[in-house]
Amino acid sequence: MHNEIDIGMKYYVIAGEASGDLHASNLIKSIKLNDASAEFRGWGGDLMQQQGVNLVKHYRDLAFMGFAEVIQHLPEILRNIKFCKNDILTYKPDVLILVDYPGFNLRIAKFAKKAGFKIVYYVSPQVWAWKASRVHLIKEVVDKMMVIFPFEKSFYKKYNYDVEFVGHPLLDVISKSPYSSLNDFQKANNLPDKPIIALLPGSRHQEIQNMLPVMRDTALAFPNYQFVIAGAPSARKEWYGDFLNTPNISIVYDKTYELLSHSFAGLITSGTATMEAALWGVPEVICYRAKGLTGTISYHLAKQLIGKKLKFIGIVNLVMEKEVVKELIQHELTAENLSLELKKLTQDHDYRDQIISEYKLINEKLGGPGASARAAKVISDFLATTKTPPISS
After folding, report:
1. Does domain 10-167+370-384 have CATH number 3.20.20.140?
2. Which residues contact 364 (CB under 8 A, 6 or more apart)?
3. From CA 13, how far away is CA 48, in angstroms rounded?
4. Which of 274, 298, 299, 338 could covalently link to 218 via disulfide, CB atoms 3.0 to 4.6 Å apart?
5. 117 phi/psi in degrees, rounded to 5
6. Do domains 10-167+370-384 and 174-365 have the same CATH topology?
7. DSSP 8-class letter at 247
8. pLDDT (tens digit, 9 = 90+) per residue, 235-262?
9. Which residues are registered as beta bridge partners of 96?
10. What are the sequence ranges of the domains in the chain?
11. Are 145 and 225 within 8 A, CB to CB?
12. CA gap 20, 7 in Å, rounded
């Protein structure tokens, strides 16, 4: 029975941050195996562009953190939304693929559904943490939702919405990443012969400004280790300048996974990076704090929203449903507390072994490798069974 998609279909992909760019790029790679003549246009980053996406806007121009920051930049955000809507109408894609980034993507989904476009969502918004009310909008405007955590399928089932669990795409990336030896890595990056503590402060300017000062102050208390910052591909080099004057702090750019593969421990900003560190088997401390008036307002609003629902903010702890690694949040994130926890990670062998043992269970919970290929097949099957042209205006 011939049940395949038409070749040369047009895909419009929207990813609003570094992790979305990574997952979208691997999804696009898998889609091209099914549809070699596919055309891609979208919003994202360098990795998507490398896969042949005609990039409309880069995610570094879209990244605003927190409630207060979003309000502050609202006119720019609204301009971007209007521009995106017009661009979709002009391009007339066969399917719109939205990757996480819910504040923007759900607005676009609502518009695109009314305009008659097919909508697939890859990497569900964290509605189980933030706004369960968004599930009703998702049911209304998203034709096919693909989730990457097993607990998300049961969450959506409570709302009578059937979603596809495809597994976590990071398992693919990490399983296919053979890297050089520690000695070669140190030589290639002019690093001293000391155990490495990875610093992953995030990719946005606000995150780097908020997180690196306390990480730097912690590094001063550990002269026998070298602290290596994972320079984000979207970040400007001057954002890191002030922190590289500390004797035992260095930086490597665009080599996060190679850095993690050689790290003894890590100080990691809450987000996708905490899962990346766990999958590499790196004992870590999850860090988060917002600074300044707008940042503090955002933090307290977020705490009111999710505080009663979730015991943790780290994805590792959420997946395992217990505190596998320590979380230092807001006022708890001090150099003193971070130093105490890092001392345990570097000196308490039983503590390290317990964390690493828990990490090994995560792979099983996340469905094993193959998420990108499974997601591409879901999209292919969906398009093959819904061959109706969109209404373009």
Report:
1. no
2. none
3. 9
4. 338
5. -85, 155
6. yes
7. T
8. 888 899 888 888 899 999 989 999 999 9
9. 12, 119
10. 10-167+370-384, 174-365
11. no
12. 25
